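The instructor's notes for this session suggest beginning with a concrete chain rather than abstract definitions. Hand out the sequence below and ask the class to guess, before any prediction is shown, which regions might be ordered.
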Amino acid sequence: MLITRRSFLKGAALVAASSSFAPSFLARTAHAALSGNNRLVVIQLSGGNDGVNTVIPYGTPQYAQSRPTLAIPQDQLLPLDANVGLHPNLAKLKALYDQKAVAVIQGVGYPNPNRSHFQSMQIWQTSSPDSSLQTGWLGRYDEANLPGQRLGALNFGALLPRTFWTEHTVVPSIGNLNEYQFMTDPRAREDSQAQIDTINKIFNTPIGRDVPDFFRQAAVDAFQTAADLKSAVNGTKATAQYPTTPLGRQLQLVGQLIGSSLGTRIYYVSLGGFDTHSGEKRVHDTLMKTLDDGLDAFVKDLQAQGNFASTTVMTFSEFGRRVRENGSGGTDHGTAEPMFVLGGSVNGGLYGAYPSMSDLDVGDLKFTTDFRSVYSSLVGDWLGADPAPVVGGSFSRLPLFAGSALANAA
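After discussion, reveal the predicted structure:
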């Protein structure tokens, strides 16, 4: 068997990096009651989705006036009521909306909006418009409510988003499941299992000091999560035909893991390409279809499994786009945006007020729903935890879920 110091260190580094680790030797503190086995799937629409052409205010004349080339004709969009409709490429989502399984939340944002991709995404992921919180809102939920669950939350992507950052928890970040494993020395392929067994033995020996034991435990966790994930995926098959887009592949893997006995509560996936400063129509049309097709396959998969009622999907973007199109056939960074929340237990319908198209803030929409109200509803009424420490304060909730106190009152 061939193991060099260099290959050992390289393999150990890859294991640690693949786990996207934080100091797991520190004790988790708060414990809260869980709400059954409810799961949350978050879809990040990266780049700033054009909310005005996603949930379209066709009932106001300012819409067509502000977008001479980008406005979607009324006979093509999918009406939700007499004033707003969905992008024509969201037909499958519209069918779910008609089945009362989709909540369309209008005008979502926060005070003093930031139009920087980095800063605004950080605000959404930390749930902290004033930057007083540095950890992520889903990381805080994981830390307080999923103690001891190595796979309580999963991210699908090359980098761990800030939404999972904490000081005390480990959230694996998976770019490619086939590469989520210990990389053995390629010169000794016939001894790869022996290499893994040797490294496992080394890492399973406590050292008795915090920092070395942190790296040791991170490696142990990475080995085990890789094995658990492969076992879960190998034991399940997709029950729907997924599109071959990156989002489709991510959602297919999420569907397989939900269909297994893995027990993960939070899944995080992303779809990029929404920074449409020029030539928006073709790009945005394609992105809407990509989202629609991915969600349609995912919902059909969950329905066939019998897991649609216990799964909720939330979409968000770091900001919307400006009301008026620019001179390049695109739109620039804006503010308020729509969010979709869908699932078998969702009280579907329109929520919040669509921002005025005439009373603008220097050309931008004024938000009408604080995004932390949506987060509070998800954490408090769906995941069954106290939302205040997770979201960063007390915010009004929306009656998004059947059986919630607000829904019953409504």
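Then share the key points. Confidence is low (pLDDT under 50) at residues 1-35, 181-185. The first strand starts at residue 39 and ends at 45.
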